Amino acid sequence: MTRYRTLSLTISFVLAAWAGRVSPDQAFANDSVTFDRDAALATVQTLAADEMNGRAAGTEGGALARAFLLREISKYGYSPVGPTYEHSFRFTPRRRNGEELPEVIGTNLLFRMDGTGDTGKTIVISAHYDHVGVRDGQIYNGADDNASGVAGVLAIAENFKETPPQNDVIFALFDAEEMGLQGARAFVRNMEMIDKNVAFNINFDMLSRSDKNELYVAGVFHRPELKPIVEGVADKAPVSLKMGHDDPALGSGDWTFASDQGPFHRAGVPFLYFGVEDHPHYHQPSDDFDTIPTDFFLRSLETVVIAAIDIDRWLAGKAD
């Protein structure tokens, strides 16, 4: 989030290590939710492995992360957006200490699912898969920021595969968020060509750490009509879901433009953003998989799946 061995062996080890760690018959709080908990945990552990070297955009580590995610996407048979899942874009990073930085090629991963309701509306469900890379010889693995959000997108995609949404859905794994929301900016610039019916954005950034058992949802300040929807999700959620961090009067506490929902908001697309508050591991080398409280994380994932289901139903029933 922007608030101020071989890979194949690693993946095999991760999946083996988590097999049986979470009971498959453990009940979800809401019976409309279904996703593979072990797979969600393995996604975060794989993306946050040292071999990924912090997944910075335009680096070998970012390419390794993308290769892993492409295998996960294709394994479930999701349709690409256009002829390919990979959508590349170019940008020049912001100057650092007055130094002009070279152009970077970023790559968004986009896949889609057709809705059953013929609503003429599309929801974009998004998270960024990049992080900040290696700094001063230390790897910033970005388990919470934002391997956890990627796991949220994949959990919803898995749930919708079982119970299809009424609206069309584009699942977007954005690159280069940490370099100024570049992947989301590129998507929004080309939104008319990608899908002219985009009507809503649900974005995830940092879903896995909260000592207070709190997950925040931002966006209701800008769209008060969403309050009953969020309240309904909160009533069913297995975490404490709180509204906030979206009022410009909060200054740096306003997250409206702090992650990939920002470009959508500027374009007039309603959004809900889900994430935890800053914690001691935020943008630190200690943001590793081993320090994630897995119980909260899995309940947080369940919460965002519930939210996606309810937002889909609400949008399908909403007149233009």
Description:
The structure is a single chain. With 320 residues, the protein is an alpha/beta fold. It has nine helices and eleven strands. The chain has helices at 7-18, 37-47, 60-75, 143-162, 182-189, 191-194, 227-236, 261-266, 294-317; strands at residues 79-80, 86-91, 104-113, 122-128, 133-135, 138-140, 168-174, 198-204, 214-218, 240-243, 271-275. The strands form two sheets. Strands 1, 2, 3, 4, 7, 8, 9, 10 and 11 form a nine-stranded mixed beta sheet that branches. The chain has a two-stranded antiparallel ribbon with strand order 5-6. Helix 1 packs antiparallel against helix 2 and helix 2 (37-47) runs antiparallel to helix 4 (143-162). The two termini are 32 Å apart. 50% of the residues are buried.
Features:
single chain; 320 residues; alpha/beta; nine-stranded mixed sheet; two-stranded antiparallel ribbon; 11 strands; globular; disordered N terminus
Largest sheet, strands/sense/barrel = 9 strands, mixed
Please report the number of helical segments: 9
Structural class, judged by helices and strands? alpha/beta
Query: What is the N-to-C order of secondary-structure elements (H for helix, E for strand)?
Result: HHHEEEEEEHEHHEEHEHEH
- State which percent range the strand residues make up: 15-25%
- Rounded to an integer in angstroms, the radius of gyration calculated over CA atoms is 18 Å
Mean pLDDT: 91
Principal-axis shape equals: globular
User: Which ranges are low-confidence, i.e. pLDDT below 50, for 5 or more consecutive residues?
Assistant: 3-25
